[in-house]
Design brief:
The protein is α+β, with helices and mostly antiparallel strands. It folds into 2 domains: 130 residues, 3-Layer(aba) Sandwich (Rossmann fold), CATH 3.40.50; 133 residues, Sandwich (Tumour Suppressor Smad4). It has 6 helices and 19 strands. The strands form 4 sheets. Strands 7-6-17-14-9-10 form a 6-stranded antiparallel beta sheet, with no helix packed on it. Strands 13-12-11-8-15-16 form a 6-stranded antiparallel beta sheet, with no helix packed on it. Strands 1-19-2-3-4 form a 5-stranded mixed beta sheet, covered by helices on one side. About 2% of the residues have low confidence.
Length: 270
């Protein structure tokens, strides 16, 4: 792929998302575009890297599903040529900001493209959680956890937990309980601009997991405050905005196999 772009007069560098030099160059805004080659997990990692710096991402699917990716492995040459003649547009997707509070002290904050999840840890027993929206109590849950998802994340963990599917252009937070017991069992879509506070009300079996990254242990009375992020992720698209619904129908009929794929990225310097 890098050679193909170089033949067309561009400076293209290849590497992996783990390379410190590539990450530093993205953070210095040296790239006009990052091409993420892999699956949805690769695109999530690329979004975490690129979104704070406004670098657009183009995904090429080498994974098994590719909910976030339009370009399949046999389409990249023709699609790259469309990119070079300007036949593309930028889709902006909301991210979440999740902050961990203990009493009046913030212990850290993270951004998520898919979701922030407060869920049970190593012990197989439900949690007692409360959720407040804009400072007002919404409800209490006895459940395995509670998902706060973006519209992008509505087709990820939230979908598996029985939540609704939201169009990607929305800027609403979706709340979906995981295996609720005698509790509200429906997903709730918050108004645009609303925030949610999730409080742990039982023992210390709870963890916070942001986009599937390393869990953060939560203590009793800890809070996770979730709101719209300080920035969003930018993706390069090639068809009309209705692509989402066409892709959705195809993806919903798949049961992807668990096949490990290598992940590669290509950077296009300014």
């Amino acid at each position: 792929m890098a050679a193909h772009l170089q033949e067309r007069g561009l400076t293209a560098l290849s590497g992996t998302l783990d390379e410190a030099s590539l990450r530093e160059r993205v953070q210095r805004a040296e790239f006009d575009l990052l091409i993420a080659v892999g699956g949805d997990g690769t695109l999530l990692r690329a979004a975490h890297l690129c979104a704070p710096w406004g670098v657009p991402i183009l995904g090429v699917n080498l994974g098994s599903l590719g909910f976030l990716i339009q370009i399949q492995r046999d389409e990249w040459r023709a699609t790259f040529d469309l990119l070079l003649i300007g036949e593309s547009w930028i889709e902006n997707r909301m991210m979440l900001r999740a902050e961990h509070w203990r009493e009046n002290t913030s212990l850290g904050n993270w951004h998520a493209l898919n979701e922030a999840v407060v869920c049970r840890g190593e012990y197989v027993r439900p949690l007692r959680l409360s959720a407040s929206v804009d400072g007002r109590l919404l409800t209490a849950y006895v459940a395995d956890g509670l998902i706060a998802a973006t519209p992008t994340g509505s087709t990820a963990y939230a979908l598996a937990a029985g939540g609704p599917i939201l169009p990607p252009e929305l800027r609403n937070i979706l709340l979906v309980p995981i295996a609720p017991h005698l509790s509200v069992d429906r997903g709730v879509v918050l108004s645009e601009g609303s925030s949610v506070s999730i409080t742990v009300q039982g023992d210390g079996n709870a963890v916070l997991c942001v986009d599937g990254q390393t869990p953060i242990r939560l203590a009793e009375d800890d809070r996770v405050e979730v709101r719209a992020g300080d920035y969003g992720a930018k993706f390069v698209r090639f068809s009309d905005p209705g692509y989402f619904y066409r892709n959705l129908t195809a993806h919903m009929n798949q049961n992807p196999s668990m096949v490990a794929q290598s992940a590669t990225t290509i950077g296009l310097p300014r």
